[in-house]
Amino acid sequence: MPTYDYRCSKCGHKFELIERLSEHQAAHKCPKCGNDRVEHVMAAFYARTSRKS
Ligand SMILES: [Zn+2]
């Protein structure tokens, strides 16, 4: 399943979600401040591999 990066337009908090395409259409909320205006950060597709620390 693809991973999507989001950034909150209000507090700037960045978070990552693993979701299906159908879920991806739904609105997301910032886990930090609860703002529902989050930006999708496309860079995830290019920069990220399955690197885990
Ligand atoms: Zn936020």
Output the keywords.
53 residues, three-stranded antiparallel sheet, Rubrerythrin, domain 2, 2 helices, binds zinc ion, alpha+beta
Description:
- The protein has 53 residues and is of the alpha+beta class.
- The chain has a single domain, classed as Rubrerythrin, domain 2 (Single Sheet).
- The chain is 15% helix and 28% strand.
- The protein has 2 helices and 3 strands, in the order ββαβα.
- Strands 2-1-3 form a 3-stranded antiparallel sheet, with no helix packed on it.
- The protein is globular and about 25 Å long.
- The relative contact order is 0.32.
- Residues 8, 10-11, 13, 30, 32-33, 35 line the site of zinc ion.
Task: Give a brief outline of the structure.
The chain has 53 residues and is an alpha+beta fold.
Q: Which strands sit side by side, in order, in the main sheet? A: 2-1-3
Shape: globular
Which percent range fits the helix content?
A: 10-25%
**Alpha carbon gyration radius:** 11 Å
Look at the helices and sheets and give the structural class.
alpha+beta
Major sheet summary line: 3 strands, antiparallel
Binned strand content: 25-35%
Q: Count every beta strand, where a strand is a DSSP E run of 2 or more residues.
A: 3
CATH topology grouping: Rubrerythrin, domain 2
Q: What is the overall pLDDT average? A: 81
Oligomer: single chain
CATH class: Mainly Beta
Annotation field: number of helices: 2
Bound molecules: zinc ion
What is the annotated CATH architecture?
Answer: Single Sheet
Total domains:
1
* SSE series: EEHEH
The N- to C-terminal Cα distance equals: 19 Å
Low-confidence stretches: none
